[in-house]
From TrEMBL:
Belongs to the type-II 3-dehydroquinase family. One of its GO terms (molecular function) is 3-dehydroquinate dehydratase activity. Pfam families: DHquinase_II. It comes from Azospirillum palustre. The record marks R19 as: Transition state stabilizer. The lineage of its organism: Bacteria, Pseudomonadati, Pseudomonadota, Alphaproteobacteria, Rhodospirillales. The keyword Secreted does not apply. Gene3D superfamilies: Dehydroquinase, class II. SUPFAM superfamilies: Type II 3-dehydroquinate dehydratase. This is 3-dehydroquinate dehydratase.
Length: 149
């Protein structure tokens, strides 16, 4: 049985669809999870989808993922721009890491233009709305396929 892909969501993403739809759209995190599951099934990838508002919980899940997951898709939310600790946890992972942002962070405030996570990610998707998650899963399938060849 092959390992699942962990899809991790950082602080405040539980509010998606409930506030600021002009930036993040109308889809809720549950809608995104359903999209990821559908896409994962089509790609033959099991998806483990999680969200936490706590940095230490995200870091603990990343540590655990090192032994249990095949890859990581992460929307680190605001922690992208601030967390050396999250970057350090990610840098200890051997599997592919893909970073997703729903909004185009480069069109927004200057402080969102830099991401610590991008330094350790194999790729970054931003500004594609919630579709970015399923695009990342497609890319993950391709990366894992070429890794076994
Ligand atoms: O565009 C993204 O996906 C972000 O990662 C979202 C983060 C933001 O800090 C990043 O700069 C870009 C914010 C997540 C909070 O989402 C909310 C959703 C609805 C209402 C309030 C916050």
């Amino acid at each position: 049985m092959s390992r699942p892909i962990l899809v991790l969501n950082g602080p405040n993403l539980n509010l998606l669809g409930k506030r600021e739809p002009h930036i993040y759209g109308h889809e809720t995190l549950a809608d995104i999870e359903a999209d990821c599951r559908r896409t994962g099934e089509a790609l033959g990838l099991a998806v483990d989808f999680r969200q936490s508002n706590a940095e230490h919980v995200l870091i603990d899940w990343i540590h655990e993922a090192r032994e249990t997951m095949a890859g990581l898709v992460i929307n680190p939310a605001g922690l992208s721009h601030t967390s050396v600790s999250l970057m350090d946890a990610l840098s200890a992972c051997a599997f592919p890491i893909l970073e997703v942002h729903i909004s185009n962070i480069h069109r927004r405030e200057e402080f969102r233009h830099f991401s610590y996570v991008s330094r350790v990610a194999a790729g970054v998707i931003c500004g594609f709305g919630t579709q970015g998650y399923t695009l990342a899963l497609q890319r993950m399938a391709r990366l894992l396929e070429s890794a076994v060849k």
